[in-house]
Amino acid sequence: MNISKRAQAMQESPIRKLAAIATETKKRGTQVYHLNIGQPDIHTPEVYYENIRNYSDKVLAYGPSDGLDELKGAMVEYFSRYGINLEKQDVIVTTGGSEAVSFAFNVIADPGDEIIIPEPFYTNYNGYAALSNINIVPVTTLPETGYHLPAMAEIEAKITSRTKGILICSPNNPTGTVFSEKEIRGIAEIAKKHNIFLLADEVYKEFTYDGEKHFSILQMEEHKDRVIVMDSISKRYSACGARIGAVISKNRDIMKSIMKFAQARLCPPTLEQIGAIAAYKQPLTYFDNIISEYQNRRDTLVEILTSNPEIVLEKPKGAFYFMAKLPVDDAENFAKWLLGEYQLDNQTVMVAPGAGFYSTPGKGSQEVRIAYVLECEKLKRAGNILLEAIKAYNA
Amino acid sequence: MNISKRAQAMQESPIRKLAAIATETKKRGTQVYHLNIGQPDIHTPEVYYENIRNYSDKVLAYGPSDGLDELKGAMVEYFSRYGINLEKQDVIVTTGGSEAVSFAFNVIADPGDEIIIPEPFYTNYNGYAALSNINIVPVTTLPETGYHLPAMAEIEAKITSRTKGILICSPNNPTGTVFSEKEIRGIAEIAKKHNIFLLADEVYKEFTYDGEKHFSILQMEEHKDRVIVMDSISKRYSACGARIGAVISKNRDIMKSIMKFAQARLCPPTLEQIGAIAAYKQPLTYFDNIISEYQNRRDTLVEILTSNPEIVLEKPKGAFYFMAKLPVDDAENFAKWLLGEYQLDNQTVMVAPGAGFYSTPGKGSQEVRIAYVLECEKLKRAGNILLEAIKAYNA
User: Fold this and answer.
1) Percentages (nearest 5) of helix, strand, coil residues in chain A
2) A261 vs B41: CB contact, 8 Å cut-off?
3) I need a labelling partner for B389 at 20 to 30 A (CA). Which of A222, B216, B246, B359 fits?
4) Domains (range + CATH), chain A
5) Residues ≥6 apart with Cβ < 8 Å to B46
6) Are B48 and B237 in contact (CB under 8 A)?
7) Please, which residues bridge with residue A201 across strands?
């Protein structure tokens, strides 16, 4: 009577591992600035709650497996504002972006198959790969080049007979890097040449700065049969608890198969979909203030941290994270020490150790992921604590 | 660039296959009585909606991966009313019973492993087994014996070196059969003897009739390390769209591993959990009227159908379904014909063909599943249409 091998193979969340230390620190009365998790502090749009409050059906019934028709329509309309033409049949509403990842992985890959992903990457890809016995093949990107893609030949060299797809996340979690249209078209050409799928996690679509624009894989009409997008409202509308996402593809066979997965779990949560409809119906201008707020936060924190020239940090153009290479021997030890032992005026900072975002052993040992999801004043304080802590740690 | 084998292997929902015919029939103006799907018409408790309307957090944030602490507490309290003592750590809130099934399957079985399930069974077990490359090994139960378990030796004979668990669903979907304490203890002894897990889907716990009581596998203290329960509020509180369920086990290693699965999908939907808290806080007397209503419905429909002595139907003691063996050559053809071609005073009935609930090819070809989720007056009408249709079909 054993736990399955796949359960044993699944890694614990690298962020949540530090949670116990954080609890102890707070018990001692020390304030913790949480730069470790991508939980935005932006208010969820009031219309989200309002639409749910107005829901009047007496029976909270099963919805359609592919999502409420009105929500699918609202999503299609949202994409059209970016010049991306979708039909409702190209969209299946999922229970969070997580389920979109699970559906996308399972529809293209069987046990032992491979998906290429630039590392560092969002750790939950690992979870779904382990659960589905899929092997993630990493292509390493570097802090020194702002975590942009390496030469296309380096990516192509990773392709084997078991490779089913390449996944990119742009704007990237954990690095904040926005891949250029050229980079994305390069990846698409490799996918075409080797006849594999191209997957993209585009949940940070809105969050680009300095005039940078997100280039979606859905914009490449010529690759539409191999394109699968994983999407979510969690960050877009600061509704992480809603668990509403979508998987998007113009490939009919893919969507027909994903529909079978969707039917097995019956439907996404109904009331949260009702909220999402209202969120999606807001104009794109809704994002203006949010984007400038995040840009300020990024600028504030990056300016402080780069005042130490030993910190390798190229200001990224998107999402609300960045990775930084710190002048410490081991970033995980540092993060534990920072959280559990260090304090400055009874305050400290929680960051996510970088190694957990890599699948190549040994990589990322000097890096941390920092989420700038606090107000600027708090970020200033947290940034200064980090600078002082690095000095103290190395002393 | 192919669809994965697991996606290809996944069967389409046998109920939803008829959906297109139903749509056409309704377009022609013919009324359809839906006895095909387990969507109760009972109102969701008003407190469910009320608690959500009163939610005042400005940010709909990620909740804990194992569910909101207050909901876990309410679930533990609910079980205590049945004399089942749980601790919060024995419960992980899931996104619907579906996810509880997925977690339970994946924590005990790797690709190629086997789980024994009495058939006919809930079709979505197939979906999750296909997705996870697990083989379901059926033990056939018969309409003539009210779909009770066969001799224990017959079940035991199915065990191989790849068998990881036995799953029972009681009260049963699709048969309505409530397995006796003796049957369940018998299964547990087999599980113990072969050192495998014992899984139970207990989502119809409340729905037992004629004084019959549900016996939970959680009541067997001596087997607690091998017991995993999959639960849901969908039927209990008529909240199918909520997607709130739970996986319950006192085995620490199992729960620790399931927690990793839970972390990969971050959290269950927050607002639906808020609703569920209020639903669970209602006293057990909440179910009294609902149970007597379902018992009346069952009695009404069973009485009508058994007026045809050629219909094999032993009145079941639970859930809100039964299977009936009809005097027709092929129940799927009959169901299609009934829905698409037959009508009585411009009304007809939709039932679920039985074969889809079996994994042994050829089984269930004369059976249908009937859900009594309509008011008695409608059920009378639907029952009479069925009787007349059988005559017409065979004429």
Assistant:
1) 45, 15, 40
2) no
3) B359
4) 5-42+286-394 (3.90.1150.10), 46-280 (3.40.640.10)
5) none
6) yes
7) A169, A230
How many whole angstroms separate alpha carbon B242 and alpha carbon B233? 8
Interface touch A242/B269, C-beta < 8 Å? yes
Q: Which helix (H) or strand (E) holds B244?
A: strand B244-248
- Closest chain A residue to B131 measured between Cα atoms? A106
Please give the interface size between A and B, counted as residue pairs whose CB atoms are below 8 Å apart.
Answer: 232
CB contact at 8 A, A137 and A114: yes
Tokens 């003796």 map to which residue? Answer: B182
The pTM score is: 0.95
Alpha-carbon dihedral sign for residues B161, B200, A271, B80: negative
> In terms of CA atoms, which chain A residue is nearest residue B260?
A12
List the one residue out of A322, A338, A342, A320 whose CA is nearest residue A330: A338
DSSP symbol at A172: -
Give residue A54's Cα distance to chain centre.
Answer: 31
Q: What is the ipTM of this complex?
A: 0.94
Question: Cα dihedral sign for A147, A153, A156, A157?
Answer: negative
Q: Would an 8 Å CB–CB cutoff place A43 in contact with chain B?
A: yes
Distance CA B309, CA B143 (A): 14
Q: What is the pLDDT of residues A220-277, one digit of tens each?
A: 999 999 999 999 999 999 999 999 999 999 999 999 999 999 999 999 999 999 999 9
Answer whether A203's CB lies under 8 Å from A242's CB. Answer: no
Q: What is the largest CA-CA distance in chain A?
A: 65
A55 touches chain B (CB under 8 A): yes
**Contact at CB, A264 and B98, closer than 8 angstroms:** yes
CA angle A270, B6, B351 (to 5 degrees): 55
- The residues in B 88-147 lying below 8 A from A, measured between CB atoms, are 95-96, 98-99, 102, 106-111, 113, 124, 127-128, 131-133
Identify how many contiguous H helices and E strands chain A contains and give both numbers: 13, 12
Which two tokens mark B7? 């996606």
Residue pair B185/B271 in contact (Cβ under 8 Å)? The answer is no
Residue type, B383: G
pLDDT in tens, B194-253: 999 999 999 999 999 999 999 999 999 999 999 999 999 999 999 999 999 999 999 999
Bridge pairing between strands B197-201 and B163-169: parallel
Calpha distance B380→A313 (Å, rounded): 73
pLDDT digits (tens, 9 = 90+) for B260-318: 999 999 999 999 999 999 999 999 999 999 999 999 999 999 999 999 999 999 999 99
Give the gap in angstroms from C-alpha B254 to the nearest C-alpha of chain A. 7
Number of helical (H) and strand (E) elements in chain B, helices listed first: 13, 12
Test A238 with B60 for CB contact under 8 angstroms.
Answer: yes
